[in-house]
Write a structure and sequence with these properties.
Elements lengths: L5 E4 L5 E5 L3 H14 L4 H6 L5 E8 L16 H4 L1 E6 L7 E11 L1 H8 L6 H8 L12 E3 L5 E7 L11 E4 L2 E2 L18 E2 L12 E5 L3 E3 L6 H5 L2 H12 L11 E5 L6 H10 L3 E6 L2 H10 L3 E4 H4 L4 E3 L2 E2 L1 H15 L4 E6 L6 H7 E9 L13 H4 L4 E4 L5 H12 L7 E6 L3 H9 L6 E5 L12 H14 L3
Parallel strand pairs: 13-14, 13-18, 14-15, 18-19, 19-20, 21-22
Antiparallel strand pairs: 1-2, 3-4, 3-6, 5-7, 5-11, 5-22, 7-8, 8-12, 9-10, 16-17
Helix pairs in contact: 4-15, 7-8, 7-14, 11-12
Length: about 475
Amino acid sequence: MPTLMLPVWNPSGKVEGTKNPRKGLKVQQIVDAILAGDTASEDFANIELPESYKAVTIHKDEENMFEGVASRDKDPRKSLHIDEVALPELGPGEAYVAVMASAINYNTVWSTIFEPVSTFGFLNRYGRLNELTARHDLDYHVLGSDLAGVVLRTGPGVSAWKPGDEVVAHCLSVELEDPAGHNDTMMDPQQRIWGFETNFGGLAQIALVKSNQLMDKPKHLTWEEAACPGLVNSTAYRQLVSRNGAGMKQGDNVLIWGASGGLGSYATQYALNGGATPICVVSSPEKADIVRSMGAELVIDRSAAGYKFWKDEHTQDPREWNRFGKDIRELTGGEDIDIVYEHPGRETFGASVYVTRKGGTIVTCASTSGYMHEYDNRYLWMNLKRIVGSHFANYRESYEANRLVAKGKIHPTLSKTFSLEDTGEAAYEVHRNLHQGKVGVLALAPEEGLGVRDTELRSKYETEINRFRAK
């Protein structure tokens, strides 16, 4: 029988050598306990944790590797690594989670292509806060802002969670030491996105999280399904439903860009569930079919319509905005847009401002096509429109968004699942917009379809789950 080997550590935490056969056995013990489905909390607490774990990383010494390369041509497959990394120290108010599945978000793509800035700058600033946060400032970054898994250990001061609890995690990391964040945790001056602006993220076998990031895993979902909603579902909830965002109400006409994608698919569901009318903008007939399968009736295929909002790199074309507005009114029976759900950014923002009704709202996040927005301010100020910035969600909004998933009101939109080793390919597909819905990644889960604990609820929503599982 071949001998399994464990890493030898260097000060940076990355593995350099091997000795000892027990690491693989410890990981397998964790997996076996989770797959059993009935392992007691004390048994989880007694499992010996490995000194290292497998993780998806980027390396600080490669942060200039794409210098001079156009954004679209930067390839995450070249910058992502699968490393053995040291298990970080567990601090007060924190938890180790065995990651069964994770997912790809645009922030993962931004990290892999080192733009708009290298995420190692985030880690350095975070590391200067105190001795505990200094753990995050390393020469590698473990990525990932979603997970579904099982609590392995909790640090001092944690009472709400125990080993063996099946959880998902939202990605809001705050210090909660400043009064500015006490009414809305997104206003905390030390607010960060876990796995993007902090280290030890969810694209790994084990993740380190603050315990207040944890929420109950929806019992009727598989591990990969449960991992997908976290970031995008909470973002959509705040951006569209919350009073901190657009405050959508019944009867609103909501223009949703990229309506079949990771963010847009949840916005489409919230519009439908909330009594609004989504006008879904997609980029292909296949994606149009996806949003229609969700129940949306008003769909614009922008590739078929051939809108050219930009004449060239520097000049937009208001005639194309006007054509777009006419197409919307044909669908709505002459009504304009109350809310625009904006996330493409530069490419679409001028059109979004133009087509919004007088007194309407453009709520914006992400800017996947570029951060430098341009629009004609006459259409904003003279028509009393509002632009609202929205970023992720606070603790309460994240809880409410997850609660709706657990109740079967909102469904995960999962198009494809990759192995941890193939995370580079998964990130590439998201970067090149080759995906539909969310792209999942299996970590410790040996295959898809595992983790359903409530078969009755699963049966109740099986049709809807399959309908929202974009192919």
